[in-house]
Specification:
- The chain contains eight helices and four strands; from the N terminus they run E-E-E-E-H-H-H-H-H-H-H-H.
- It is of the alpha+beta class.
- The chain has two domains: about 55 residues, no CATH class; about 120 residues, Ankyrin repeat-containing domain (Serine Threonine Protein Phosphatase 5, Tetratricopeptide repeat).
- Strands 1-4-3-2 form a four-stranded antiparallel sheet, with no helix packed on it.
């Protein structure tokens, strides 16, 4: 996609780009800051620079100067900072399986484990949906309720059955999770099991036979 050359003596880089991108480039003019903390000045933009051997009817030539950036304290102060609520960060750590951060948030009391978040679920529900058994164990260790219901009356066991996580379902059952509990639609966890998930089917068949 990109071809770097030095055929223009007054320019540091020449980059070949798809012609369809040309309309999106003017907003980057005038030394915009790149993520790598460098500045790029678009010196000129030619839709079809046919004098270049790399130009084609479908490509244009973007000629740029590159300047290393010296960050000053003033520029650092002017940098905008985006802060996310603790709840958002906490749920993201759960979904990413970052057990260290999950534990830190709980120990620092930045979150409470009985909260029903904007997703309509609690932290333990989110951990079950991620399929991360170790995260489930960690939350329960810190006091998460294995019978907590989400906004639709689903328990973590409902989630484990519906999303086919037999290893999590087995663990929740070993802790005494109620298998006869129904959600807001009157469904038991076992009624949400996909018949193709033989391990879950067998797990609940065994439990029913006990």
């Amino acid at each position: 996609m990109c071809g770097i050359g030095h055929q223009y003596s007054d320019l540091r880089y020449t980059v070949t780009i798809p012609k369809k991108w040309l309309g999106n480039l003017p907003r980057f003019v005038a030394k915009e800051i790149n993520p790598d903390s460098a500045q790029v000045e678009i010196a000129s933009l030619t839709a079809l620079a046919l004098s270049s051997p790399s130009a084609t009817p479908d490509h244009g030539i973007l000629k740029m100067r590159y300047y290393p950036t010296r960050r000053t304290s003033r520029s650092l102060r002017s940098t905008r900072t985006v802060r996310f609520p603790n709840d958002v960060l906490f749920l993201d750590h759960i979904r990413q399986g970052d057990l260290e951060q999950v534990g830190r948030f709980i120990r620092a009391r930045k979150v409470t484990l009985d909260t029903i978040y904007l997703t309509g679920m609690g932290a333990l529900h989110e951990a079950v949906l991620s399929g991360n058994l170790e995260c489930v164990k960690l939350l329960i260790k810190y006091g998460a309720d294995i019978e907590q219901r989400d906004e639709n009356g689903w328990t973590p066991l409902h989630m484990a059955c519906s999303d086919a996580y037999p290893h999590i379902a087995r663990y929740l059952l070993s802790l005494g999770a109620e298998k006869e509990v129904v959600n807001s639609d009157g469904e038991k966890p076992c009624e949400l099991i996909d018949s193709d998930c033989e391990e879950l089917v067998q797990l609940f068949s065994t439990k029913e036979g006990d």
